[in-house]
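The instructor's notes for this session suggest beginning with a concrete chain rather than abstract definitions. Hand out the sequence below and ask the class to guess, before any prediction is shown, which regions might be ordered.
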Amino acid sequence: MKNKPCIICNNKLDFLVLIENRNFRIIKCRNCGLIYQDYPDKQGQNNNIYDSLYSDSPHQDFVSRRFDTIVRRHIYNDIEKIHKPPGLMLDIGCSFGQTMAFFNDKGWTTTGIDVCEVSIKWAKAHGLNCSLNSINDYNPARKFDVIIMSHVLEHLADPAAALQGIKKWLKPGGIIHIRVPNILSKLLKYKIFFLGELKPYEHLYYFSADTIRLLLKKTSLKCSVTTRYRHSIGSIINMIIRSKLVLRPSWNELNYQTISGKKNFYLKIKNFYEKILALADLCTLGKNDREIVVIAENFK
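After discussion, reveal the predicted structure:
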C-alpha cells in the first residue's frame, strides 16, 4: 500500500504504524511526529455522517452547558487580549451557533458555516447568520477580524491547504483561534485511552502541540500554542468503553446511522448515555493538557 505523504514534512517513506484495521490505519510520521489516518480513500469523508451524530438541539444538561460556557469565555478572553473592539467574526464549524450568540451579545457581527444540516437548521431558526457550507465551498464576501475553528482542523482532509485558504479570509492583523484534541495528553500514553480517543470516521489527524506548531509555521502565521482543560471521570469512562468498540465494524455502522428510524433510536441511547456520563464530568483530574489551543495572528 502506498502511504499518504505527511502534510507537514512531505515524508513518504518513514512511518510507524500505530493501529491497523481492515477499515483504517493510524500512522505516525517518524520525521515530524504527525499522527494521522493513512488510507487515502478515507480522506474527505461524506459530510452526512455528522448529521447522524447530532440531536435536533444542543445539549440541555447543566454540566455540558456549564463547560461550554467556560470554553466560550476562554475563547473570548483570548481574543480580547489582542483585538479589543468588536469586529467581524467567522465561526467555522459553528454547530448550533452558541459561540456566535455569545459574541453577538458582546457586540460582534458574526457569521457561521458548518457541514451539519441539523445544527445549521436549528441555528438559523434562532436568528443566527449561518449557512450549510464546507471550507472548500465557502466564498466570503468580506474579510474577518477573527476566525474561530473549535475542533475542526482534525476533521479536514488537508488541514495545511485549508489553513492557507482560510488565511486569505483574514484582515491584516486578524486572528485565527483554533482548538484541537491533544493526542499527547499524558493520559493517552496508555493504549486503552489512546484507542478510546480515536474517531476514525471523523478525525483524520491527531495533533500534538509540536505538530500543530509546525503546521501553522507553513502558513506563515505567528502563533502561540498552549494546552488547556483536564480530563474528567466521565471522559475516562467513555474512553475505556470506546476502546472496546472502536475497532468493531458493527459498532461504527451503528454509530453513523443516517436512516431516520435507526438514527433516532441511536440518538436516544446516545443522549441517555451522555447524560449519565455528564454527572461524572464534574470530577476532573490530571494536567491541563486535554486540548491544544492555538492563537494565530496574520501580520501580512
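Then share the key points. The radius of gyration is 19 Å. The chain has a mean pLDDT of 89.
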